[in-house]
Amino acid sequence: MSEENPYSNASRRLENIAGHLNGTGYKEWRTLSPSQTLAVCTNRERKWNGYGYKDTFFRFDDEGTASLLGNRFEHFSSKEYHELRPWLEQTLRINLKTLCRAQPTMVEIHSPEVNHDFYDTIKPQGIIISFAEQDRLLHGHGISTIEIYKLRYGNFIRLPDAVIWPESHEQVEIIVKAAQKFNVGCIPYGGGTNYVDALECPVEEEKRMIVSLDMRHMNRILSLNNENMSVTVEAGAIAKDLEMVLRKLGYSLGWNAESIEFSTVGGLAALRSSGLRRSMYGDFENSIINMKFVTPIGTIKQSSHSTSSPPIYSGPDITNLLLGSEGTLGVITELTFKLHYLAPYRHYISMYFPSFHQGLLFLREIAQKKIVNNLSGARLIDETGLQLVHGFNTATPTITTVFKEVLKKYYWKKFKKLETGKMCLAAILIDGYDSSKMEVYEKRILNVGENYGGVNSGYDLGERMFFMSQGLPYLRDFLMDYYAISDYLDTSTSWSNIETLVDKVKEAIVTTCRAQNVRPKPYIAVRVDHLYETGVSLTFTYGFNCRNLADPLGILRRVDQVALVEILRSNGSVSHFPTGIGKRKKESFIESLSEPAIEIMKNVKKTLDPTNIFCSQNLL
Ligand SMILES: Cc1cc2nc3c(=O)[nH]c(=O)nc-3n(C[C@H](O)[C@H](O)[C@H](O)COP(=O)(O)OP(=O)(O)OC[C@H]3O[C@@H](n4cnc5c(N)ncnc54)[C@H](O)[C@@H]3O)c2cc1C
């Protein structure tokens, strides 16, 4: 791990990136042929009982060194993590000899409920439909810890009865009309990456046939307009596939959700998502200019002007009402996004701070005084989370590096007040169009940090902070093999409230775990993910050893609910990042709404979907 400022190293990388982009045709305008189909990651490449690619998983070798197999991630794959096992043994008390093996297949899959009138209507239209158990299982869940746990050790009471792959907007209209006519439930399916149990079938009182609408065959770019800087795409396009095509043309969608490899643009819109680079490019919804939305009463779209015109500021915005509807009001079939020029330069900065409090003061000044225009992303991890960041260190320890480390820690403690167990880590990402300005930006940020006791910890650690979230779901699944169970909760709150909220939520988790006989006490880390002038978004990651617990899932649910209640009580929002309400946060969501807001939402549902075809969840 490099802790000193590797500016020369960083400049070299920037040149590399710039060279690479020039080579791919930056500023060389090309027009895509309409209807260009994007590649699609098939379910064959994905695990059936865990997050992500089949060929990517953690394992311990004979010496107990952890590594991530596969070659999907430039920063993490095929690397050894020497500090991970000792840390896991200490915090989560995992024991390499005590394994909790997952079941090889799902024990029980109920037989499908078939509505023959519905089937006889859609089949002659050439619409692809499957009743295969494997397809139904793959489409019956997202990737929340509870869902993955059920796949590995339990069961789903209800799965979709069939999976349908519509191939056009018109086919979606046919399916929704038939579902309405013959009383069939529909659940739109994007990439299946939500964390909030949004895709699970309703269990009680739902006797109808339920079909999952996998949107990923609708993945064409319908038009790309260089003059207006906009792209219209079908909603099943995987965000990364689209971004890759756009980058070759010198554009970017900007926000960059970290589930980009699997999430569809429709799924991201349906959950009002956000991404790594939101500080510079805005949230997902800010990029949407237009969309087509199929409901049981017809298709909603803006028809009176060209799809790529600037937003209309007259009257209420219906599009905004539909964003975040999580598949409960209809199906998004097409989206028009505004494009950004791809920023060819990128730089990561990281700084250690003596405490979380000082790290927050640093970030607040960065956010409120707009220290640099091109701030793309920012993170701050607390003292507990920092240990995990260090666990992702790929350097092999030698006598010299260990000795240097001891000396450095001594120096830091004595002269910089940086103490292991108290210090935290901030990371900043800047994107730029002008290479000569990158060094200036870095200096400005470091100067602000130094005023709060910050010590420069280099490019590599900053880069690791941003990229490691991609590896975390793989680590979560791996740890289940060793009786360690973990989950995430996100919220947002004002600057003045952060520390009170963090303390209270941590306390609520610890107290609940203690009452449930969780031993040793849970691991809880807090991370600031996004900065706003008025506050931040926060993610809590918590986990515990469940070896001696009779009902790990029940305890996890209890901790989740108690923490959510405490978040609301402490003036946090019900959700922020990764976004969504789903079944997981439904009760807290309702609690956070005023009576008139609930009334409006109920009426919207009654108007657009009177027979509750879109039945995965009732957000109210
Ligand atoms: C490693 C990881 C990183 C993540 N990072 C981020 C992040 O940076 N930012 C973020 O916001 N989220 C993030 N998430 C959460 C998740 O990726 C998002 O919530 C995403 O929006 C889900 O998209 P999807 O296509 O996978 O949708 P799915 O999970 O398939 O579906 C989600 C919901 O949307 C509905 N839906 C899907 N497609 C449509 C459609 N076409 N029309 C109507 N409804 C539809 C479904 O019915 C369901 O209710 C992350 C998740 C993981 C696993």
From TrEMBL:
Residue positions binding FAD: E326, G327, T328, L329, G330, V331, I332
Chain ranges of the FAD-binding PCMH-type domain: 156-342
Keywords: FAD, Flavoprotein, Lipid biosynthesis, Lipid metabolism, Peroxisome, Transferase
InterPro entries registered for this protein in UniProt: Alkyl-DHAP_Synthase, FAD-bd_oxidored_4_C, FAD-bd_PCMH, FAD-bd_PCMH-like_sf, FAD-bd_PCMH_sub1, FAD-bd_PCMH_sub2, FAD-linked_Oxase-like_C, Oxid_FAD_bind_N
Gene3D superfamilies with a match to the protein in the record: 3.30.300.330, 3.30.465.10, 3.30.70.3450, Uridine Diphospho-n-acetylenolpyruvylglucosamine Reductase, domain 2 (3.30.43.10), Vanillyl-alcohol Oxidase, Chain A, domain 4 (1.10.45.10)
Record field: catalytic activity: a long chain fatty alcohol + a 1-acylglycerone 3-phosphate = a 1-O-alkylglycerone 3-phosphate + a long-chain fatty acid + H(+)
Residues noted as binding substrate in the record, renumbered to the chain: R476
Signal peptide per UniProt: none
Site residues, Important for enzyme activity: R379
GO biological process: ether lipid biosynthetic process
Pathway: Glycerolipid metabolism; ether lipid biosynthesis
Functional description taken from the UniProt entry: Catalyzes the exchange of an acyl for a long-chain alkyl group and the formation of the ether bond in the biosynthesis of ether phospholipids.
Name the record gives this protein: Alkylglycerone-phosphate synthase
